[in-house]
Amino acid sequence: MLRRLEWTVLRRLDGILQGDYRTVLRGAGVDLADLREYQHHDDVRHIDWNVTARLQQPYVRQFIEDRDLTAWFLLDLSGSIDFGSTDVTKLALSAGFVATLARVITRHGNRVGAVLYGRKVEGVMPPGATRTHVLRLLQQMRRPRPVDAPLSAKEARKEAKEARARGAKAALRPGTRLGDLLQAAAGIVRRRSLVFIVSDFISEPGWAEALGRLARRHEVVAVRLVDPAEMALPDVGLVTVEDAETGEQLFVDASDPAFRARYAAIAQQREAELIEQLGRSGADILELATDEDLLEAMLRFVDLRRQRSRRRASPRFPATLRQNRAVPAGAGAPPAAPAVAPAAPPSKPIQEAA
Predict the structure, then answer these.
(1) What confidence tens digit (pLDDT) does each residue in 187-221 have?
(2) Which of 150, 180, 187, 256 shows a CA-CA span of 20 to 30 A to 211?
(3) Rounded CA separation 282/124 (Å)
């Protein structure tokens, strides 16, 4: 897979960017280099007020950039990632993006590390800078995971207790707790780094606060994986859909326009809430779709990094790059009170019921 990506994506990316990856590989940290007197064109945010008060003359700080880049990939490999209504699953999309970006970074002498999360934090790959290191990362991402394993007795009791506290029904399998991955990463990634969180963000609540804390300490890019069927249910008749996270199943009539309209309305509501949470965190947001060409996705990532480069003087304003997606015509107007909420995407492509 890596060799194919090097020929089909990296070579074309090199041609388009003419080898200029300076913006993409900009270091995540800065060091204080010197102090000098304030000049009229200087940014007032760089004024050193302690020195200014002591010398009774405005002084500004000068910085040099730390060019040694360490990038970390926080990889959500839970059940819902192994879904795709097109020829490409979210897992394959994630692997392609991570492999391509990791090779861009390591080819220029920088290092990449990873934290892998399935049902729990499964392992940590310390930063490395070789092609072999990237191959090992790909192997770890693509190895089978026991996503269908039922809860143990202890886990089932804990899940039932937590579900009662939430006023919900206990799940057959544990759902994704993205907050666990982010909290673990906070203890693993000590030095300020460029951190990519690659996930569909279908998760139990509680991750937004952990993401905000991580974004205050590191330069964070939330890479959100999406599939078209998560926004608009296709008209495929009577089907059984399964929540890939919890194992719950539901028999639905996908040919009913009213049901598809409710599905689309709730999906849009969830989308708006998710984007708001990501935006509040301070992380940059990059959206990748399973029906999108990987090269186009990489070019949008380069645009995102260029936006960040222009905004470095104002780091409180994150950059966002999303695909332009809309609910297909004919989905109908959203009802006032949706009655059926779409579960996490099925673990397998939707098939017509017998």
Answers:
(1) 999 988 999 999 999 888 889 999 999 999 998 99
(2) 150
(3) 25
Q: Is the pTM of this model over 0.85?
A: no
Mean model confidence pLDDT for the chain: 77
Give me 99's structure tokens. 């492999």
| Rounded Cα gap, residues 282 and 220, in angstroms | 8
SS3 at position 353: coil
**8 Å CB contact between 195 and 218:** yes
- Written as six digits, the tokens of 229 are 């069927």
Q: Is 33 helix (H, G, I), strand (E, B) or coil?
A: strand
Helix (H, G, I), strand (E, B) or coil at 332: coil
Q: Which two tokens stand for residue 262?
A: 């409710």
Q: How far is CA 137 from the centre of its chain?
A: 17
DSSP state for residue 40 in the 8-state scheme:
T
Q: State how far the alpha carbon of 169 is from the alpha carbons of 29, 51, 246, 336, 338, in Å.
A: 45, 60, 11, 25, 19
Q: What's at 154, amino acid-wise?
A: K
Structure tokens that stand for 123 in this block? 């392992």
CB neighbours of 148 closer than 8 A, spacing ≥ 6? 79, 173, 247
